Amino acid sequence: MRRAQSSRAGLVASTVVASRPAAALAAAGVTPRRSRGQNFLVQPRVADRIVALAELGANDAVIEIGPGLGILTERIAAASVRRLILIELDERLAARLMERYAGDARVNVINRDFLSLGRDEIAVGAPLKIVGNLPFNVAAAILERLAAWRGEIVRMVLMFQREVGERIRARPGSRDYGALSVYTALYWEITSHFRVGAGCFHPRPKVDAEVLAFAPRLAAPVDAAGERAILATIRAAFSAPRKTLRNALGRTAGLPAGALDAALAAAAIDPAARAATLAVEDLSRLAEALMRARAAIGDRDA
C-alpha cells in the first residue's frame, strides 16, 4: 500500500514539476543558480526515456547525481531498485527529497558535492548504475571522477551540455575529437545517445543537451602504473593538439630525440601525425613504448 501511495504522490509531483517548475522551486525556496549549473529537466517524456535507457532491475543499486526536483528520482524509485542514493548539492532541494522519501528505506539522500565524495564513502555494491542530469559546469569533471568507480558500475545514463556530449563521443579525426574523447574511450563505450532541446529545462539554457548511455569498457587498464602512463601520454599528446606528435611529446616525454623516435616507431605511430588522429588503442601502445624507452635509459644509467 505504501508503494502504491508513493507512486500516486510521485505522479502528482511530476505533473507539478513539469507544468509549474517555477512554483515547485519557489515552494522549495530555491532560486536557480548559474554558478551551480542548475537547469532542471521538466519534460516527463525525456525523463521516461532516460530511465528506460538505464535498464533498471530489482538487484540494481542506483546513484542519481543532481536529482534536483526529482523528476528522474520518481521513475527510478518506481522501478523497485535495491538501493537509491541521491546526491544533491543544494541543501533545500536535498531537504525536500529527504522529506519526500522518508518512508522509503531504499532511498538515502546525501547533501554533498559529488566531486567531494570519496568512493569509500558510498558502499552500495555491484551491480551499480549511475543516472543524472549533470550540472553543465562540472559534468566533464564528474565523468572523469566516475572512472574510479568503474569496478562496480555496469551502466551509466548521463546528461551533458550538447557540445560536451559531442566531444565525449567523438571519433578520431573528427572536429570534436580531443583529450576528453580519448579519456572516455579508455574506460567506457557509448551505447546510445539522444539530444534534448533547451526547452525541456527550467530555466531554459542557451544550448541543447545530450544524453549518453555508457557501458564499462572490458579492456580498461587494470595495472596502476600502466594506467598512469596512458593518462600521462594522453595529456602530453593533446597539450599542443596542432603540433605533430613528435613535437608535442618532445616537450614532455623526458626522452632524447632518438629514443622518442624509436618509441614512436615501436608503437607504429607516425611522428608527423596529430593527436586528434589517434584512437585510444594507438595511445595505449605509445604509452607502453614510452615506458619501455624510459626503462631502457634508466637501466643504462644505473
Provide structural commentary.
This protein has 302 residues and is an alpha/beta fold. It folds into two domains: 2-216, Vaccinia Virus protein VP39 (Rossmann fold); 224-301, Helicase, Ruva Protein, domain 3, CATH 1.10.8.100. The protein is 43% helix and 17% strand. The protein contains twelve helices and nine strands. It has helices at 2-19, 21-27, 44-54, 71-78, 91-100, 139-146, 162-168, 179-187, 224-237, 245-250, 257-266, 280-301, and strands spanning 40-41, 61-65, 83-87, 107-110, 128-133, 153-161, 188-196, 201-202, 209-216. The strands form two sheets. The protein has a seven-stranded mixed beta sheet with strand order 4-3-2-5-6-9-7. It has a two-stranded antiparallel sheet with strand order 1-8. Helix 1 (2-19) crosses helix 2 and helix 1 packs antiparallel against helix 4. It is elongated, with a radius of gyration of 22 Å. The chain starts with a helix and ends with a helix. 39% of the residues are buried. Residues 1-12 have low confidence and may be disordered.
